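Troubleshooting entry. The earlier prediction with zinc ion gave an output that would not parse, so I re-checked the input for stray whitespace and re-submitted. Clean input:
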Amino acid sequence: MVQWPVDYTGAWTLQTPVERRGVGLHSGQQATVRLQASERPGFWVGWLDAPELPLCRLAPGQVSDTQLCTALRLGPRRLATVEHLLAALAGTGVTQAEILVSGEEVPLLDGSALPWVEALAEAGLTALPAPSAGVVLKAPLTVSDGSSFATALPYAGLRLGAAIEFTDAAIGRQLFSLELTPCTFVDEIAPARTFGLRSQVDQLRAAGLIQGGCLENALVCDGETWLNPPLRFAEEPVRHKILDLLGDLALVGLPRAQVFAYRGSHGLHTSLAAALADLPPAIPSPG
Ligand SMILES: [Zn+2]
């Protein structure tokens, strides 16, 4: 059993490097990711296939595309589908790490954050002396896009919630929220997989997307049923929305806040991360 941090107040990095390889959801290409300790706060991306390029610290300003995944523009390179890996790092309490990648897209693995959590369990985590400089809100912050919105309220801990509404009866209306800690993340959120609608699969394939998508790495909904049951949780889709929200917030570091997203999307989540990044820096509380 791994001892995860008890909460998000400390600073943590990896004990030993760890590597995973797999297919990217949209490109269908094989890619390798190596995770290792960083001496500097934040998540830093470098390239296994271009070691001469400097490492980039991730920030919401790098978001270049949010159609179905969060893609970043990092100097001359693009990196797609970062959200599940970032959710695993931030969710387990990691506050600083180097992410070295070959290729243009983080592998989807099983469509959840669980394989990344298992990689981090294998690597082990080390506590660092400095407290984590989490974003602290002084007033509510809301971003919206049509009828969708995401709001962050001041709070001592981290509480995440999401609601979704689909006409497909198998999904329907779902609402889920939880007090997030590394342990509740690992048990309640990390295993929730990506989902899609059968009606959209052909259209997305024709548009050159989801080339690496299959019934092994995404739940596919077909009206009243799922093509590939069983689900890991009755409300697995909305739990996955919380996973995506967490991964997008990790671009700025986890806030001390209650965050709720109604019909969230990567565009909405990354707008909230950008708004949080614009707040004045927090002064870590003593002790
Ligand atoms: Zn996702």
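This one parsed fine. The pocket of zinc ion is lined by residues 83-84, 194, 240, 244 (CB under 6 Å).
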